[in-house]
Amino acid sequence: MKWDRGYLLVVAMKYIIAMIRPEKLDAVKRELQKVEVNRLTVSSVSGYGAQKGQLEIYRAMEFEADLLEKIKIEIAVNDEFLYPTIEAIKSGAKGSEGHIGSGKIFVLPLEDVIRIRTDESGPVAI
Hints:
- The chain is of the alpha+beta class.
- It has one domain: Alpha-Beta Plaits (2-Layer Sandwich).
- It is built from 2 helices and 8 strands.
- β1 (2-4) and β2 (7-9) form a beta hairpin.
- It is elongated.
- This is Nitrogen regulatory protein P-II.
- Pfam families: P-II (PF00543).
């Protein structure tokens, strides 16, 4: 939210967090570029969901790897880009067929964004 001349304005922005398989990152980036979403942050993370890990063998010993490597994508968008961004992530992460562990997308409200260089804030700062 932002104050302008004493009035409270509702700023329509969202913060999207997506967890995907590492091998799907390039496909997701291609799909995002198609919908003109070119700003994102990518991190390598570990976790598990429905897959509950997997059995691995290391030096002839079996052990359960319960944390799987994932990619976390974070994107701030104005509301008009919300659904195209979600569809692009789904399309790239799912591929031709979805599997357990294809990922999740979380959408959160975003109160404000400030571009440090220009001191712009709100939707124009995205």
